[in-house]
Amino acid sequence: MGDGSNRWPAVHRLDAAHLYRLAIEKGVAGARYHGVGDEGVPFRDIAGVIGQRLNVPVVSKTPEEAAEHFGWFSHFAALDCPALSEKTQQTLGWRPTHVGLITDLQRGTYFD
Predict the structure, then answer these.
(1) Which of 2, 5, 38, 78 has the greatest count of CB atoms below 10 A from its CB?
(2) Residue 63's pLDDT is what?
(3) Reduced DSSP (H G I as helix, E B as strand, rest coil) percent helix, strand, coil of the chain, to 5
(4) In a domain, 112, yes or no
(5) Residue 1 lies in a domain
């Protein structure tokens, strides 16, 4: 989108682990389950926290500049892919309970 408003879904690793267990125990063979805690976190917010934690400036890039900077990853960085997990929650009785991506990045140990 160029302005960083494109969204990425996210799920805390412990919520994802719980979902995997439920899918094995209660799931249907061949079914697909969406493990989503955050339906769509704006990419600019993710980049902002990473920049803050690494103490590096965060700048906006045009799609062309992003392609040059990120290379093959620019395709993924540009995706707008919000997702829901309502059906998974109903089917497996799963509920994400841990903090969202931004809070986890802000207080987590990813940058230590």
Answers:
(1) 38
(2) 87
(3) 50, 10, 45
(4) no
(5) no
Go through 51-88 and write b for each residue having 16 or more CB atoms within 10 A of its CB, e for each that does not.
Answer: eeeeeeeeeebeeeebbeeeeeebeebbeeeeeebeeb
Looking at the structure of the chain, the number of domains it has is 1
- With left for phi above 0 and alpha for psi between -120 and 50, is residue 7 left, alpha or beta? beta
Its pTM surpasses 0.70: yes
Task: Confirm whether 26 is domain-assigned.
Answer: yes
The pLDDT tens digits of the residues spanning 31-43 come to: 999 999 999 999 9
Is residue 93 a part of any domain in this protein?
Answer: yes
Helix, strand, or coil here: 97? coil
